[in-house]
Every structure is written in C-alpha cells, then in structure tokens.
Amino acid sequence: MNGFLAVYRREVLSLWVTPLAWVLLTVFLLLQGAIFYSIITHFASMAEVSVDTGPLQAYFGQESIFLLMTLLLVCPALTMRVFAEERRSGTIEALLTAPVTATSVVLGKYTALLTTYALIWLPTLLYVVILRKTGVVDWGVVASSYLGLLGIGAAYLSLGTLMSAMTKSQLVALLLTIFLEFGLFIMGVGEYIFDPGLFRDVCAHVSMMGQMEDFSKGILDLRRVVFDGTVTALGLFVTTRVVDSWRWG
Amino acid sequence: MIEVSNLTKDYGTVVAVRDLSFAVGKGEIVGFLGPNGAGKSTTLRILAGFLGATSGSVRIAGHDIAASPLAARRALGYMPESAPLYPEMRVSEYLLFRARLKEVARGKQKTAINGAMDRAGVAHMAGTVIAHLSKGYRQRVALADALVSDPELLILDEPTAGLDPNQIREVRALISDLGGDRTVLLSTHILSEVEATCERALVIDRGRLVAEGTLEELRRRQKSSSLRARLRDPNRLAEAAISAIPGLGLATFSADDTGDGRRTLHLTLSQELDTEATVETLVRTLTAAGVGIHALIPEQATLEQVFSELTAHEKANAEKTLPEGEA
Questions:
Q1: Which of A56, A203, A231, B317 has its CA 20 to 30 A from that of B57?
Q2: ipTM field
Q3: How many CB atoms lie under 10 A from the CB of residue B301?
Q4: Of A2, A6, A93, which has the smallest distance from its Cβ to B97's Cβ?
Q5: Which CATH number fits domain B224-299: 3.10.20.310, 3.30.70.260, 3.40.50.300, 3.90.550.10?
Q6: pTM, to two decimals
C-alpha cells in the first residue's frame, strides 16, 4: 500500500479546498431539506400513522426516489474530475513516476471520494435528531438506512471513478457517469413495470429503490450488499487496469 | 546509474525512439540533446517509469524498470517537461505530499522539504498557493519536488524552459552544484545549456543516438574548422596568393573589405588538413606576397555547429532510406 495514505490525504484536501465539495454539499442539503420538509408536513397532516411507516421510513424507503435522484446528480459531479483533471493538466505524470502502485493511487483517490460522500450525508443526521424530539427513533433502522446509502454511494462512486479514468474531459466523464448510473437506476424501476419473470427478477435485484426500501425497514439483505460490493470492486479493478494501461499509450 | 540497451518505443505507426543504447555513470552530469520532436521526452518518460518501452531494457541504479519498477522509481527524482503541479495546493503542502509519496521517513520530512525549497530557491514561497505562482516559480517547485527525496539520480526534462535569463543562470548553477554526489540527466534543445552545465552529452535525432561523448570530443567531431584573418591588403593580393598554395584547394574562403585597405578573410579548412601546418604555410605565403597580417584568429567549433551538422547529416541519411516504408 505504498503511497495510499498520501494520495488519500491530498485528494481529501483538494476536494475541500476547492469549491466543488462545498457547492455539492450546499445543493445536496437544500434538496434533502426540501424532501424532508415535504415528507414531514405530509405526515403531520395525517390522522393516523402505522408503526413501520414513519417519516424516517418514508424518507429513506418508500420515497427514496427523490433521495436517489439527488445522488444521480451529486455522485457523478464528485467523481468527474478525479482522474480526468490529472490527465488533462499533466499532474498524472508526476504522480505515476513516484514509487506508488496503480492500486494505491486508485484506492487512495476512491477512499477520499467515499469519505467526502459520507461527510456530505453527515448533516442529515440532524433530521433524525429533530424527529427524536417528537417521537421515538429506532437507531437500528437509522443505521441500516445509512448503510444502504453507503452501499449505493460506494457503487456509484466506483463507476464514476472508472468513467473519469476513461477520458481526459471532465464533461465527458460526467455525462458517461450520469448515463451509466441513470441506466442502472431506471433498470431498477423495471421491477414495477415488467411482468413476473427472469427480467423482472434481475431488475428487482439491481433496484436501488428496492434496496433502500429493505434497508429502511431494518432488513439487511446480504444479496444487496453483495451486489453493491461487486459493482464497487469491479469498477475499481477495471480502473486500476486502465491506470496501468496508460504506460502503454 | 542508468543503463539503456536497445530501447525502442513506438506509438502505433510512429516510432519515437529506435534502438537506443547508452549508459550514464554515477556522479555524471549528462546532457540529453536533440531538436524538438527527436524523442527526448519520450526517452526520459520511459526512464522515469511513466511510459513503457516497446522493446529493450532499462536499468536504473541496478533495478530493471520492468521487473522492479518501484525500486527503480525510488532511486530517482523526475521533473516532467511542463512542470505540472496541483494549482489548489500551497507549495509546502505539495512538497509534503510528494515527500510522503516518495516514502521520506516521517521524522525527516520537514528537513527534506525545507532543504529542497532552499536549494530550488522557493523557501520564501512556502505558503503561497501554486495557482498564484509565476511560471518560473512553478518550474522551481517542480525542481524542489525532484529533490525532496534526496535521490541519487535526477532526471530533468527541459529544466530551464520558460525561465528568464537570471533564473536560467540560477538553475544551471544549482544543477552544477548537484553534480558530484548525484547523477543528473537533463534534456534540452539549447546547446549553451549543455556547455554550461554538462560534462558529457548524448545527441539524439529522430529517435536515434547520433553522437555521444564529452563536449571536447563532440567539438572535435566537427568536419571543418575555420580561421579568420585580419589583413592589410590594399592591392587585394591575398586571394591569388592563397589559391596558389598547393593542397589548399579544399578550403573555401571569402573576404570582405573593411575599408582603408584593411580586409577580413574567412577561411574554412577541410578536416583532412592539418590546421597548424596550414596556418604556418598561410602566414609564410601571405607575408611573401606582401600582405600585412594584423591578426589570425582560429575559430573554435561551437557545439551549435556540431549539433546542426550531426542532425542535418542524420536527416539526409534518413531521407535516403525513407521510401522503404516509414511514411
């Protein structure tokens, strides 16, 4: 793991000393605030609330389409520059001539992105604190919901990192990532469209909304975790190979 | 320190480096010379481990770059051509990042960074964001980066490109200063740079090594040497007298009148002639003809001339062989 920590620290610093992370944080929190606010007002006007469909379940589960739509915006914007910018500006030459392996470079950068993603989610814990004042919060459900979000983020960021390594243009990386992740998301929607059968099962298996619905009820489905893990690992593995291949360009 | 044998690199149909072999010993300062597009940067990028070779082998400090790339890269400090840096970082932050990346021991990082900044002359810029630095300072930060791990071998790709004359002098002084305990390989297309800093030069053209040797050896490689004679010759007798010297027919000469009967004569002697004997004959002949000699100035071949002769010669050769399939 030569240089992993050095790459990681530089990447986190770069993300937070430039406006990118702050802009994303602001946009993200505004959107999440609006979503949370409308869910809360909706629940406040309801006469009766059943036990397993509180506002938290709605936010993380049934209404997770809103939350996932913001991720489709935030994750590609977070990953687009990670390799494309280094290649365009030439800093990749200095980076790859240091005694580091492609694996540490890719993992260092990726872990920094995942940390930033987690930091962007951190303020939403306040929503839980707010809800706690007026009712009971099941912390297990909160934990599993965030775990679900971490899994989806890990997969999205891995795909974005790969797309950023494929091109020198940040814009192309952004568009490719949105295309890929939106495709994955839409495929999940197929669960509600197609007739029962193999195709619907596949759609249900990759459904991000399905994943959030399960996790928001505290159901930790191992298949979901394995799926997220596979996408993440595959994306990172291919990225490493791409970085190695630059030597032969 | 560097051993390159039969190195070839092609980018699809374009051959950037072909069958290049050379060696650089410990403590040498070697200039890597060639016109733009000769394959200098490609070769240095291969040595630094940024590009892979198509064929051939490279050993850096005894480590084969293909078999043990990390050990090879650990032994060298590389400064890429355009000095790419992260604009959002401060100089000290950037150098700390590079020191960590290059595995400088935790306790020594601060000393290493300060030492590198001092040597490269950027110590007073430590807290400045790189985006706000001028081109010259960026170049020097990249140089500090190459120095930060105190490597035995420095590979510098056009270290003085884009600098003003004062900065060029400083960087050259620094490079000369580094020699002795360190090996330096620097590329340039500016000949005076090699004359100012290097002990030995490798001349490369169109991906091939065309000459190699100390500066003295390279100068001697020049095909012809020349003489300048300042004469008092109101009756213009010099030409006739010189043409009459037997065996001097190979030389070319031209004269210009500087008025007052004074003239300056430019003579180019072909290599086959013994320069010293020719000068003697010349003086005797001219004096006998009644021409007054004010000065006889041997013009030493500059590397500039050697360089253009070497690369022009190579071009002519290449053109001859070109139709067989390169285009």
A1: B317
A2: 0.88
A3: 17
A4: A6
A5: 3.30.70.260
A6: 0.83
